[in-house]
Amino acid sequence: MEKFKGIWAIIKRHLYICIFIISFLSCSNLKNRTSNPNIPYTYINGFDRYEVKPILSIIGKDSAFTNELRFQSVYSAFYTKRTMYDKFGKWDKEVRLKNEIHPILVWEKRSLFDSNNELYTIAANGKESREEIYASVIIFDSKNQDCLTKNSKIRDSLIQYFSNGIKKLKNQKKFYKVYWEMVNNYKLKNQNKN
Fold first, then answer.
1. Sign of CA dihedral 160, 123, 33, 38
2. Which structural domain, as residue segments, surrounds residue 181?
3. Domain count across the chain
4. Averages of pLDDT over each 10 residues, the chain, 194 residues
């Protein structure tokens, strides 16, 4: 009987260690080392930090600043696009400012929170370059007000919403199937114009 208690104590100890390791790994983002000195690490289903950056928009003769929420050092610049796709499915619009192959994806009149009935327009974008890699969003409410201004009451909730969305990304195959089909159709259409 004493021998059984000793074995049981060892098994219990190993079980606790395994549970601790599994829960630690599931709560942490996987860090991916890169060979780029500007971006030493990227984060799988995570990010290094976020920032809200004012972006100058020029429409006709008018100009205005719009705030863009950027998640830096993500493994893929598509993370905010995938977050929106996981929740709402295919986007409503594709915006190409300079005829880019990879557009800004826009979802219109979407409710992001169960606690309020506000409908938002979300533009998801991203950038992968030698200098930086980020996934980003610009968010407007139903009155076309920038929701990421410093005095916005919903700003912190939106940052949390997209932070959690990136950490809980689902299977990427569905998104990429639809996305690459759209990109390939765009390339083919433009190729036929030339």
1. negative
2. 30-193
3. 1
4. 62 57 52 90 94 87 91 97 96 92 96 93 97 97 96 97 95 92 89 70
